Amino acid sequence: MNLTLKIWRQKGPQDKGKMVDYKVTEISEHMSFLEMMDVLNEQLTNKGEEPVAFDHDCREGICGMCSMYINGEAHGPDRGVTTCQLHMRMFKDGDTITIEPFRAKAFPVIKDLVVDRSSFDRIQQAGGYISVNTSGNTQDANAIPIDKHSADTAMDAATCIGCGACVASCKNSSAMLFVGAKVSQYALLPQGRVEATDRVKNMVAQMDLEGFGNCTNTGACEVECPKGISLENIARMNREFFSASIKG
Amino acid sequence: MSVLDSKIPKGPLKDKWTTYKDKINLVNPANKRNIDVIVVGTGLAGGSAAATLAELGYRVKAFCYQDSPRRAHSIAAQGGINAAKNYQGDGDSTYRLFYDTVKGGDYRSREANVYRLAEVSANIIDQCVAQGVPFARDYGGLLDNRSFGGVLVSRTFYAKGQTGQQLLLGAYSAMNRQIARGKIEMYNRHEMLDVVKVNGKARGIIARNLVTGEIERHSAHAVVIASGGYGNVYFLSTNAMGSNATAAWKIHKKGAFFANPCYTQIHPTCIPRSGDYQSKLTLMSESLRNDGRIWVPKNMEDVLAIREGKLKPTQLSEDQRDYYLERRYPAFGNLVPRDVASRAAKERCDAGYGVNATGEAVYLDFKSAIERYGLEQAKIHGIQNASKEKITALGEAVVEEKYGNLFQMYEKIVDENPYKTPMMIYPATHYTMGGVWVDYNLMTTVEGLYCIGEANFSDHGANRLGASALMQGLADGYFVLPYTIGDYLSHEIRTGKIPTDSPEFDAAEKEVTERINFFVNNKGTHSVDYFHKRLGKVMWDKCGMSRNAQGLKEAIAEIKAIREEFYKEVKVPGSANEMNPELEKAGRVADFLELGELFAKDALMREESCGGHFREESVEIDGEQKGEAKRNDKDYAFVAAWEYKGEPSDAVLHKEQLEFKDIELKQRSYK
Fold first, then answer.
1. Which of B431, B366, B440 is nearest to B404 (CA)?
2. Tell me, what's the ipTM?
3. Taking the CB of residue B390, how many other CB atoms lie within 10 A of it?
4. Taking CA atoms, which of A184, B315, B367, B478 is between 20 and 30 Å from B191?
5. Hey, which residues does B363 pair with through a beta bridge?
6. How far is residue B389's CA from residue B374's CA, in Å, rounded to a whole number?
7. How far is B636 from B628, CA to CA, in rounded Å?
8. C-alpha–C-alpha distance, residues A191 and A197, integer Å
9. What is the pLDDT of residues B212-258, one digit of tens each?
């Protein structure tokens, strides 16, 4: 198929940036979206133009590196997939596709479609861990039984890949789904309860400091999340935060 | 006499590691604060090492090319992690894990290292649970296990089909804690482009900031390379797009020997390629072979009809199908080890029986499993005379619960429903057992330069067993390196801060800068990928699942020719002082073009078949094993460690003889 691409080009963080049109031809429906981008970039390189910079790595939907806001949706029109898992069969011959970076104050653009998501790292550094040293002398892994339901729910929260689609989809650029998922994983496990009070307070404080907006329960994040992280996690974080605030 | 000293401690196998730990030198906490360690790579090995070294009190600088350490490719591991916990009471033990690993590696690994790995495996699970890794549990609240290919016990711990992700997030959380404490300085979007040696010791690295293009100098008292494997030498592999061998290859060029490059794992169950535009291959977990049956049509007419779309695989009756693994290996059937399963698929496809347009695909069929589970469920639920449709529905539900996420992934990529029609699979490059040579301390042949995880060669011999890569990465990083590096650093307490304005740093930076300038100024005619794809094709055709002397000689000549053309004709758009992904690729492919040639040279030298390395000249001539791989322990029971001498063709071979004192060498049989 033949397509028209409208792509955000921005030379660097200080550059103003603009949309630029490109044509690609003979795109196979079996290609992934990023393979289509490879075709475009090969074309640009051969013409001596600068290829479009975009983040990508594992190309199997688990590393969370790829982003892209495609036709107004984070990771494009399919559900439960990242951009690298999106296939061209979702589009039709002659389509015009608009491709932008994830937009949020806390995700400044570095170049073209590449954004800086290190704010996510800093939120994790504020408390997204359990304070245990490597010693080889922690207690046996089976010493504390954990009920299957809690273990499975913690796992569901832990599958977040930290891609930032939740933030990009939210009209408030809120990171509550991301933070809620991490807070939930630890809050549901006995190992994580010990530090639960400080953890939620510190992570939320850092989230606010980074400039992410608040949650107004529209649920767009849950719809666009490639890993199906549930809104329940935001509710759980709010509960944790509330009880932590009471404890002081 | 070899220059290689593996430094294996004396004494009985079982006591070596304990005795070693009791006798090494330690560094006191006040001195640790003044010692710098650089860790390159933040996957399971690098991430766990950086966190642990920082916890101990060293000042750590960690580097990764991704935008966050959490994205290293360990994250893509699906199946699980082995540990000799014997929670299932099925007879597992440290010795058995050790034995399985050595045997699975076709007797080409170092006994003492493997035993240590098995010994610390149980600690890994304890540590990860303490960190909050949500492993699968049963209804009693205890940890669940599954079994994997090539072994007779259930020792694999898992977190759905995302075990690598959960373990990496555990190591990442441990790193985050140390970053917050200021003990780790994290350099995201940075790529190491050379190691700096001062008086023969590794003293730092030259790195490029991938956002600004700036070249940076970083000094340290020791350098740890944890940059993963070199599977992308094949262009197409299950590795991430950015996975590369540059850090490992640069240290090789500065004196670290490179061992067994020809030991590569071609994983049997991956989604076949669909066209020339393909950028990577996707793995389907080995666990699928527990329930899937692998086949191709018996008759050539059926193959052709299927390819033309005139016939559907589901229309073929049982006697029109060739379940070739069950036919050739009745004892192990579809559960033979990875190398054997991969070669058998290639054999059928080479004979013309491949079932897709490219002729490179076989079927992985779940029909029998769905029927079997369906009948079982009907019985459990007391459904009398269940209809065929009901049985299928019940069976599909069971298969969905076990492999649902994999089936969904397949359907998204191939656009076919694997519950209704068999999956198509074909082998793909997945893991590299070879790598930088290290001694028992995990130190390379350069003093103060360490190499851990997939990047080193040590534990898997010629073939790695499933669920052992995660085990090795975390063992090296959490429990081995922190001890061994301490012994070395105990001699560094009087050294003081390493200056970065020395002539050695000047020279290394100059070399790096010149190379970058060469690429951006080279007004060639072809993109980096153009050359990478050509290299990949030579590697796959001539250094792939089976190799022969003729093909390997051709490969050596062809790779050299591609390399020469690459330097003349490569075109890199953009400049050096900005984010420039094409420039990053150019440097990595330049290194693959050298590594690939050494790979072929190593494969040509090793005139035996062992594990992932299959030489067509070395097969059993007759008897029950006719046509199977033939190992030659008399002449080749050694590690081939190559010393860099300029061109890859000039590399000098050093042999480390492998001694097996606790295990009897046997020919593997899966008949």
1. B366
2. 0.98
3. 14
4. B478
5. B295, B424
6. 10
7. 18
8. 13
9. 999 999 999 999 999 999 999 999 999 999 999 999 999 999 999 99
Q: Which residue of B has its CA nearest to A158?
A: B166
- B571 at A interface, C-beta within 8 A: yes
Closest alpha carbon within chain A to B580 = A53
H/E stretch holding A114: strand A114-115
Q: What is the mean pLDDT of residues A133-151?
A: 94
pTM for this entry: 0.97
Burial of residue B139 (number of CB atoms within 10 Å: 0-12, 13-18, 19+): exposed
Q: How many CB pairs under 8 A join A and B?
A: 215
Which residues of A, range 174-193, sit inside 8 Å of B by Cβ?
185-186, 189, 191-192
Q: How near does any CA of chain B get to the CA of A143, in Å?
A: 9
Q: Cα(A123)–Cα(A178) distance, rounded to whole angstroms?
A: 10
Tokens (6 digits) for A36:
């289509």
- The length of chain A in residues reads 248
Query: Mind listing the pLDDT tens digit for each residue in A157-168?
Result: 999 999 999 999
Q: What's the DSSP call for residue B643?
A: E
A162: nearest CA partner in chain B: B70
Q: Which residue of A has its CA nearest to B406?
A: A60
Q: Which residues of chain A make contact with B179, given a CB cutoff of 8 A? A: 121, 125
Using DSSP, state whether B82 is helix, strand or coil.
Answer: strand
3-state DSSP assignment of residue A137: coil
Res. B158: pLDDT tops 70:
yes
Vertex B184 angle, CA B183 and B186, to 5°: 155
Identity of the amino acid at B661: K
- Under an 8 A CB cutoff, do A151 and B479 touch? no
Mutate: best of A34, A40, A60, A156, partner B, most B CBs <10 A: A60
pLDDT computed for residue B431 by the predictor = 97
Contacts of B581 in chain A (CB under 8 A): 51, 53
A109 touches chain B (CB under 8 A): no
Contacts of A133 in chain B (CB under 8 A): 55
Strand order in the sheet with B652-657: B435-436, B258-259, B638-643, B652-657
Count of other CB atoms within 10 angstroms of residue B217: 17
Residues 6+ apart with CB under 8 A from B557: none
- Rounded to whole angstroms, the Cα distance separating A95 from A5 reads 8
Class of residue B66 by CB neighbours under 10 A (exposed 0-12, middle 13-18, buried 19+): buried
Sequence-ordered list of residues with C-beta below 8 angstroms from that of B289, at least 6 positions apart, any chain: B149, B268, B269, B334, B335, B341, B364
- Quick count: other Cβ atoms within 10 Å of Cβ A111? 23
Of B71, B85, B131, the CB nearest to A65: B71
Residue A9 φ/ψ, nearest 5 degrees: -115, 130
> Using CA atoms, how far apart are residues B458 and B433, in angstroms rounded to an integer?
8
Q: Retrieve residue A10's tokens.
A: 């921005």
Which of B465, B433, B145, B424 has its CA nearest to residue B337? B465
Taking phi first (over 0 means left), then psi (-120 to 50 degrees means alpha), and beta for anything else, what does residue B632 get?
beta
